[in-house]
Amino acid sequence: MHKSYYFLIAVIMFSGCTPQPESTIFVEPHCLPSQSQCKITNSFGSFDILFNVDTVITEQMFDIIIKKDSAFEKLKVTGYLEGKEMFMGKIPLFFEKYDLQTSVSKAMLGSCTEQDMTWRMWLTIADQENAEKAVTFFIDFNSKRS
Fold first, then answer.
1. Is 68 buried (19+), middle (13-18) or exposed (0-12) by CB count in 10 A?
2. In the prediction, which pLDDT does 15 show?
3. Which pLDDT band, with edges at 50, 70 and 90, does 130 fall under?
4. DSSP for 3-66?
5. In terms of Cα–Cα distance, which of 34, 39, 63, 62 is closest to 49?
């Protein structure tokens, strides 16, 4: 055999030994065990704050899902994420309407030196017809470093 074949076999063998990063497994939207609140009730109605992963892993995409039970039809959801104990900057959330009751934002968190980190998600729900009517609240949740 040529030396190049030995080299190719060695590369294949060693590449299989490198640890693979933990991958995100998408699941039916649900509340995280680490979430401080799953349901928010305010003057606009009731809102479920859900995630499409079992564990939020830094540097991997996930969805934040807001499901409303409200008589208000023209509500807009805006928000951002920030570290609770450690400043990691503000990560904006861009919610898009999925259907009449659901808004979804894709998100990704940066890694820090801590294995586990608590994040604070600030959400504002506003009436699109009356911008002065708005409610702001936060929810805390944990992530794991990838």
1. buried
2. 45
3. confident
4. HHHHHHHHHHHHHTTSPPPPPP-EEEEE--TT-S-SEEEETTEEEEEEEEESSEETTS-EEEEE
5. 39
Question: Could you tell me the two tokens for 78?
Answer: 């805006």
Q: Is the pLDDT of residue 128 over 70?
A: yes
Tell me how many degrees the CA angle 69-74-76 measures, rounded to the nearest 5.
85
User: Which pair of tokens denotes residue 50?
Assistant: 């859900």
What's the CA gap between 49 and 29, in Å, rounded?
Answer: 9
> What's the count of helices (H) and strands (E) in the chain, helices before strands?
1, 11
- Taking CA atoms, 116 is separated from 57, 70, 119, 124, in Å, by 9, 35, 10, 26
What global pTM score does this model have? 0.79
> Which of 83, 145, 85 minimizes the C-alpha distance to 120?
83
Residue with the larger pLDDT of the pair 5 and 40: 40
Task: Please name the residues in contact with 84: beta carbons below 8 A apart, sequence gap of 6 or more.
Answer: 117, 118, 119, 120, 140
